[in-house]
C-alpha cells in the first residue's frame, strides 16, 4: 500500500531536528542567513527540502501563542508535477514518494508551474542546474524504513504508515479530542489527496498552507479542459517529446555514443 505521514502540529515545538536530519541524509548545505530552515523566514528552496516555519497565533483560550509547521513536498497522490513532465523526470512511485530523476530532466521547469503548492525549486546559482525537492527519503521507504526527518523527531509529531490507515487515525484523533483540533485533515482531499497529512488546532491558512486549491487531482482537472481543445493542440506534447528525443540522439552521436548504424555502441 502507498505510504504516508500524519503530522500533528499541536505537538511540534520547533526544535528543528527534522531539518538537520534532512540536510545530513540528503547532503544539502546550510545557509541559515539567506535561506533559513527555522523561524518566521523559513523557506523551501533548492537547498532546503524541509523547513519548520514559526507562526504567531491566538490559542483557544484567547492568548497569544506560537505554532510551528513542518513543511516539505506533500507528495500528491496524483501529482501535477509528474503529469506535466514531458520526459518522465518526475514519477509517482507505488510506495508513495514522488521521485525526481535528474538524468532525464531537460530543464523545462513545467513541474514548477504545475505544482499547486509551489514546491519544486530550481538551482539558479549552479552552472548545470537541476530541479530540487524532497524525495521523501525514497531509498529508506522502499527498504521498509521511515524518512529521516521522522526518525529523529523527539516528540512524535509525525507518524509514518499506510496512507489510508493514517486518514482513519487522523479522524479518530479528532473525534477523541473534541475541541483540540479543527475538524479537517489537510491533505486528505486537497488536489485529490497527498501523502503528507496534517492535524492542527489552527486554520491551516494561518500556518502558511495553500488552502485555495481544488479538491480533485489537477491532472484530472486539466484533462477535462484539454479534452475540449482541438486535437491539434494536444499534438504539441508529442511534437515536443519528439524534438527532445531527436536532440538527445544527435548529442549522443556527436559524443560518439552511437555506432555507424545509429544504435548504441557495444
Topology:
Layout: E1 3-8, H1 17-26, E2 38-39, E3 51-58, E4 64-71, H2 80-84, E5 90-92, E6 98-100, H3 110-114, E7 121-122, E8 131-132, H4 138-142, H5 148-151, E9 158-162, H6 163-176, E10 196-199, H7 218-226, H8 231-254
Parallel strand pairs: 1-10, 2-3
Antiparallel strand pairs: 1-9, 3-4, 5-6, 7-8
Structure explained in plain terms:
The chain has 266 residues and is α/β, with parallel strands linked by helices. 29% of the residues lie in helices and 16% in strands. The strands form four sheets. It has a three-stranded mixed beta sheet, covered by helices on one side. It has a three-stranded mixed beta sheet with strand order 2-3-4, with no helix packed on it. Strand 3 and strand 4 form a beta hairpin. The longest helix is centred in the C-terminal third of the chain and has 24 residues. The protein is globular and about 65 Å long. It starts with a strand and ends in a 12-residue tail after the last helix.
User: What is the SS-derived class?
Assistant: alpha/beta
Find the count of extended strands (DSSP E, 2+ residues). Answer: 10
Radius of gyration of CA atoms, rounded to a whole number: 21 Å
Order of neighbouring strands in the sheet with most strands: 9-1-10
Q: What is the end-to-end distance?
A: 40 Å
Order of helices and strands: EHEEEHEEHEEHHEHEHH
Strand percentage lies at 15-25%
Amino acid at each position: 500500500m502507498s505510504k504516508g505521514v500524519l503530522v500533528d502540529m499541536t505537538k511540534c515545538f520547533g526544535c528543528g531536528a527534522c531539518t538537520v536530519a534532512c540536510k545530513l541524509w540528503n547532503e544539502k548545505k546550510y545557509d541559515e542567513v539567506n535561506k533559513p530552515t527555522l523561524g518566521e523566514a523559513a523557506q523551501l528552496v533548492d537547498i532546503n527540502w524541509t523547513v519548520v516555519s514559526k507562526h504567531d497565533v491566538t490559542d483557544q483560550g484567547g492568548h497569544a501563542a506560537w505554532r510551528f509547521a513542518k513543511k516539505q513536498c506533500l507528495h500528491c497522490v496524483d501529482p501535477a508535477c509528474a503529469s506535466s513532465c514531458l520526459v518522465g523526470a518526475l514519477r509517482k512511485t507505488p510506495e508513495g514518494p514522488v521521485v525526481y530523476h535528474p538524468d532525464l530532466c531537460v530543464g523545462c521547469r513545467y513541474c514548477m508551474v504545475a505544482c499547486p503548492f509551489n514546491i519544486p525549486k530550481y538551482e539558479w546559482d549552479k552552472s548545470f542546474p537541476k530541479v530540487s525537492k524532497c524525495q521523501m527519503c525514497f531509498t529508506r521507504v522502499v527498504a521498509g524504513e521511515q524518512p529521516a526527518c521522522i526518525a529523529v523527531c523527539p516528540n512524535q509529531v509525525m507518524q509514518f504508515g499506510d496512507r489510508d490507515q493514517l486518514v482513519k487515525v487522523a479522524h479518530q484523533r479528532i473525534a477523541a479530542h473534541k475541541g483540540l483540533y479543527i475538524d479537517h485533515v489537510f491533505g486528505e482531499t486537497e488536489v485529490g489527496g497527498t501523502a503528507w497529512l496534517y492535524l492542527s488546532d489552527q486554520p491551516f491558512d494561518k500556518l502558511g498552507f495553500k488552502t485555495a486549491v481544488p479538491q480533485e487531482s489537477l491532472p484530472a482537472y486539466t484533462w477535462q479542459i484539454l479534452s475540449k481543445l482541438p486535437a491539434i493542440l494536444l499534438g504539441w506534447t508529442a511534437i515536443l517529446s519528439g524534438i527532445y528525443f531527436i536532440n538527445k540522439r544527435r548529442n549522443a552521436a556527436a559524443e560518439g555514443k552511437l555506432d555507424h548504424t545509429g544504435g548504441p555502441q557495444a
